[in-house]
Amino acid sequence: MKKLLLFALFFLLAENLFPQTSLQEIKPLIGISCSHPENNFSSARRTYTESVLKAGGLPILVPIIETEEDLARIISMLDGLILIGGEDVHPSYYNEEPIEELGDVNDIRDVYDLALIRLAADRKLPTFGICRGEQLINVAFGGSLYQDIPSQYEDTSVEHNQKVPSKYPTHYIDLLPGSIIATVTGETELVTNSHHHQAVKDVAPGFRVTAWSCDGIPEAIESSTGLPVWGVQFHPEAHTINGDSIMIRFFEFMTGQAVLYRNQK
Ligand code: MN
After folding, report:
1. d(Cα 237, Cα 256) in Å, to the nearest integer?
2. What's the CA-to-centroid distance between 155 and ligand 1, angstroms?
3. Is the pLDDT of residue 14 over 80?
4. Model pTM score
5. Is 171 left (phi over 0), alpha (psi -120 to 50) or beta?
6. In the chain, where are the structural domains located?
7. Ligand 1 centroid – CA 233 distance (Å)
8. Spacing, Cα 157 to ligand 1 middle (Å)
9. Reported confidence tier of residue 265, pLDDT bands at 50, 70, 90
10. Could you tell me which residues come within 8 angstroms of residue 243 by beta carbon, excluding any fewer than 6 positions away?
11. DSSP state string for 48-75
12. Residues known to be catalytic
């Protein structure tokens, strides 16, 4: 009888343990938002997909779809989400008229990206925004942007729209101690690339700025209410792909968060 009980206990444990063990061996599914060239393609640079692969995740491109119901279904299958760089966000989303210096916008992509952020937040899906992705997170939660730093920001000592390729870092940023970006990198400052003429102006309610370039421009934000949502103004994937051993940690952090999220699903 004791033996029988032991066997029963063993099978009960095995039932519960093995599915989890095998789940952990499966790479977490990291959705990557797409750009929309010529309003005719859904695409993402290889640097994004390779960075996720390098960090142990499985990248999957989320196509540009206008039906929110379909996007919701896709989001429900993911363990994490990365929002990539691209065009300017239309200022109507933060209640401003466009200024002359505003760059290209993509209306369909704005709707798609903002829907992705909202749907991901509803599920508390780990979300990481890069460049435009970071700006969109700020706008989605009620913040605003500089439409054009050179014409709207007094201090022009930092060149935020670098001419050299993105694998070259061009300016320093200071990190807020205790923030995600500081904890993940273990650093107090980083040297980053910079390909933007817009930036976070008023940070969204429920978020905080966690990095600044020396001119005071925000270079990273994160949720201050425990939502697993954050973003950076630079392009870590361009450094990661060239072997940067610090910026790969942003993607490893994402895959780690994604595994935790999946195991709690
Ligand atoms: Mn910058």
Report:
1. 17
2. 13
3. no
4. 0.90
5. beta
6. 27-264
7. 6
8. 11
9. confident
10. none
11. HHHHHHHTT-EEEEE-----HHHHHHHH
12. 131, 235, 237
